Amino acid sequence: MTATTNRQIQLASLPTAKLGPEHFQLGQAPVPQPADGEVLLKVKLISLDAANRAWMQGATYRAALAAGQVMAGGSISEVVESKAPGFAPGDLVFADTGWQDYAALPAKALTKQPRLEPMSHLLSVYGIAGLTAYFGLLQVGKPKAGETVVVSAAAGSVGSLVGQIAKIHGCRVVGIAGGAAKCAWLQTDLGFDAVVDYKAGNLNGQLKAAAPGGIDVYFDNVGGDILEACLFRMNQGGRIACCGAVSQYDGAPPAHGPRGIPGLIVTKRLTLQGFVLFDFATQFPQALADLQGWVGSGRLKVPEDIIEGLENTPAALIGLLAGENVGKRMVRV
After folding, report:
1. Contacts of residue 142, Cβ cutoff 8 Å, sequence gap at least 6
2. Which among 40, 61, 119, 312 has most CB atoms closer than 10 A?
3. Using CA atoms, how far apart are residues 271 and 244, in angstroms rounded to an integer?
4. Which of 246, 249, 248, 227 is nearest to 238 (CA)?
5. Where are the beta strands (DSSP E) in the chain?
6. Sheet holding 194-197: strands in order across?
7. Global pTM value
């Protein structure tokens, strides 16, 4: 390795309203040296997720971020130097490296990855996005063939896979997305049965037309008004998989939460369940086998949105929060 400088995207300050370029700064540090039991990594692909913004609001399933830190984030990285058994130069790993060129991390914090092409699939369909879609839908939503599944943020990294997996399981699938182009893409390219454009207005009317028989499973990526609208369309015994609330991560808090929840839950016997991907860690091998089979047979398409250059990572996250991406957004360092 000849590099001596490690570029880093640092948090200049924590946002109190919408995230902007001013909240980041490009810094430099020496390339770290691995200690015993550690591995030096060269970051290849950085995962961008709405959760990146949620981490700036306080402690979640990980510690809260602070100004001056390297921005947190997962990546696919290559081992450059190893001082730990089980890892050798050239190995690929998934790791919480943050937004930088190099990171030295304990071997126990790394997850070894297979070498496959395209490498980007390790962050999308075979990574957190694909596993989240798989377990959130199948283990939490528990869809049955013939049921109606509705998914919000349907053109995003998780939603685009949720809808396709539901189709594979024989469900009628309705996608909620923003803009005519995304909605047309969901139907034409991914085979969704119906779509709702939340930017077009009359959300309740569109939802009723798209799901005239009601909703059996709702996969919620956004929270807010869309969750409220879907709650009122749920069928008796319906299941809601609560994956995220991207509508509430960036900017001022909502004026109100979804209304009418207590009565609806009781009278319709609804189940609302949140989940964290690693609840299902013991089942990852089976999930990956299923996902690989579906991709290999062409039944599961893998939309990806790759931005080039570490320096463009802040703008790429800001754009993701604004709904720019179609499929899994990542940055090639």
Report:
1. 217, 239
2. 40
3. 16
4. 227
5. 5-11, 24-30, 38-47, 75-82, 92-95, 102-106, 111-113, 148-151, 172-177, 194-197, 215-220, 234-242, 271-274, 304-308, 328-332
6. 194-197, 172-177, 148-151, 215-220, 234-242, 271-274
7. 0.89
- Cα–Cα dist 219/240, whole Å: 6
Residue type, position 18, single letter: K
Q: What is the pLDDT of residues 214-249, one digit of tens each?
A: 999 999 999 888 999 999 999 999 999 999 765 455
Q: What is the pLDDT of residue 191?
A: 97
User: 56 burial class (0-12, 13-18, 19+ CB within 10 angstroms)?
Assistant: buried
Identity of the amino acid at 190: L
Between 224-231 and 203-210, two packed helices, what is the crossing angle to 10 degrees? 50
Length of the chain: 333
Identity (one letter) of the amino acid at 113?
A: Q
